[in-house]
Amino acid sequence: MSVLNTIQTILIIGATSGIGEQFARRLHAIGKKVIITGRRADRLASIQSELGSNVSTYQWDITDLPNLSSQASEILTQHPETNSVFVVSGLGNVLNFLDASTSSDAKLIAECTTNVTAPVLLTRAFMPHLSALAAKGQKSSFLLMGSGIGFAPNPFFPVYGSTKAAIHALAVALRQSVNKAEEKIKTNLSIVEVAPPYVATDFDKGFRNPKGPQPMPLEEFMDETMKGLSELGEDGKTIREVAVGSAGPRVDLWRGSLGKYLKEAGMEG
Description:
Structural class: alpha/beta
């Protein structure tokens, strides 16, 4: 059974715009119960009004770290049937460390908090719930939004690339833990890293260069990613990454080098 087919109720963290919103729309359209979070109450209300039934919303700023764990518990208390969690929220800035005027301490802290610290705390908050479901024999999944840039750095996004490399390392380590867990958890709990290429969203409007590399259209990215999720786990395929466009070769190179080393060392993730 594919990862997509195992999703029944999914919590999407960061779904008021861009890729997160499109995942909410796509999954809702195929009958999944969707719980969406974001900072903007107006966008949450608009999406819920448009999609109608089978959608719940929570206003949630995941950079509010002291309250993150309690808010996660609140969602699980109200929706104990949640069997899939997708951490999508992300923040990226163009900067050059050789020129201090291109960044600030506050921006760097916000980027690292949004892209690394919050996802790590969210992992701690949700993985016990998902693994408990798996131990009872129910399929569950934890998805993290990575990036092709996490596998091959880009000089324009030194911090963003570093944070996405951290997300990849987190996904691998989680998978290693699952692989060493009891058989039911190993069989039923999937850790999936979604690795996009450069995609056209509001995220990139501030730095898009008409003369430079052009982003993949969002709809094309979504088509390919949904196809990947529908194939992941089918016919015994190993559940790891869904990499689209230029991110695909980067992931393949990692799998053929460091990934191969980990497998040979008995630490496959």
